[in-house]
C-alpha cells in the first residue's frame, strides 16, 4: 500500500525546491554584474546601459515571481514572463559575454514558466543560443565555427535538461493525482466504515429479532413434544384410574403413573424456561456449560453421558455459544425421548475456522430418509436445531440407521469476540 503521508511530504519538498530555484537567478545576475565591473579586459557596453538592463531584469523577476507567485499556473502570463526574460538575457549578453553566467538560469525559467515538452524545447533552444553566444565571446560573433561547436553542446545540454525536467514534472503531476486519488479512496473507505457500523447495528437488531422468533418456535416445539405429550398422558392415566375405581391396585398404579408424568413434565417445563436464557454460559465457558448440561441430563435420565473437548477453547460470539448449548440440550432431549440409549458421547471440537459439536448415542436409531412427522408424538427436535443453526450460518448433519444409534453433528463458524470487535 502506498504511504500517503510520504508521498505528500515528497510533493511538498519538490515544491519547496522549485521555489528555492527561483532565487538562484538573482544571485547569478548579481555575480555577473560584479564580474563585468571588475573585469577590465572583457569588452562591454556602457555601464549606464548595463545598469538599466540589470535593474530592469531584477524588476521583471520580482514582479512576475516574488510579487505574483500565483501567476505560475497562468500559462498566458508565464509565456509573457518567459519571453521578457529571454529578451533581457540576449540584451545582457550583447552588453557583455560575462552575463552568460546569468543566461544559463534561463533553463530554470523554462521549467518554471513553460508547460509541455514542445514549449520547453523551444524555450531551452532559445536559452542555449544565448549561452552559446556568451561562451563564443558575445555579440557580434567573432568565430562562427567556434560558436557552432559551443552551440551544439549547449543544445545537447538544453535538450537533456528539458527532458529531465519534463519527466520530473510529469512524475510530480502523477504523484499529485495519486495523492488526490488516495485521499478520495480514504474518504470513501471512511464512509464505508461508517456505513458498515450502521449495517452492523442493523444486523444485530435483526439477529435479536430472529432470536426471538427462533425461541418462539423452539418453545412451540417444546410444548408440543414434551408438555402436551405429558399432559395427554396424565389425562389418560387419570381417566384409566377413574375407570378402575373398583380395583384399588390398578387405581393406585394409574395414579402413580400420572404423578410420575406430572413430575417429568414439570422438570421439562423448567428446563425449557431456563433454556430461554442459558445462565450456565454467564458463569462458565462453553465446554463447562455443555458439560454441566450433559451431567444434569445424565442424572435425570440414568444414562451415561460424557463430553470430550478437542482443540483450544476460545470465547465465541454469544449467539454462537448459545446456539451450540441449545443444540446440545435439544440433542440430549431427543435421545431421552426416542433413542432408548445406554450411552451418549458428546464431542466439542475447536478448529481454525469452525467449531463442531457431535452427539452420538447407541440407541435404536432411525431412517434419516424417512424422518418422523411432526405430530402429537413429537418431531420438532431436528427441525428446530437445523433452523437455529441456519440463523448463524451453521449446518446440521444427521447419521443414523435402525438399530445402530444416531450421530448428530452441528458445525458453526468460529467467530471469536476479538474478530467481531
Q: Mean pLDDT across all residues, rounded?
A: 80
Oligomer: single chain
Strand count, sense and barrel status of the largest sheet are: 5 strands, mixed
* Uncertain parts: none
**Overall morphology:** rod-shaped
Helix tally? 14
Provide the β-strand percentage band: 5-15%
The domain tally reads: 2
Number of strands: 5
Question: Helix amount, in percent?
Answer: 55-70%
Subcellular location: Cytoplasm
Catalytic activity: ATP + protein L-histidine = ADP + protein N-phospho-L-histidine
Cofactor: [4Fe-4S] cluster
Transmembrane segments: 20-40, 47-66, 78-109, 121-138, 144-165
Would you kindly provide a written description of the structure presented here, covering whatever features stand out?
The structure is a single chain. The protein is an alpha+beta fold and 421 residues long. It has two domains: 4-188, no CATH class; 284-421, Histidine kinase-like ATPase, C-terminal domain (Heat Shock Protein 90), CATH 3.30.565.10. The chain contains 14 helices and five strands. The chain has helices at residues 4-21, 24-38, 47-66, 75-95, 100-103, 106-113, 117-135, 144-243, 248-275, 280-283, 286-301, 318-339, 381-390, 417-420, and strands spanning 304-310, 343-350, 354-361, 395-400, 406-413. The protein has a five-stranded mixed β-sheet with strand order 1-2-3-5-4, covered by helices on one side. Helix 12 links the parallel strand 1 and strand 2. The chain is rod-shaped, with a radius of gyration of 46 Å. The relative contact order is 0.06. The model has no long low-confidence stretch (mean pLDDT 80).
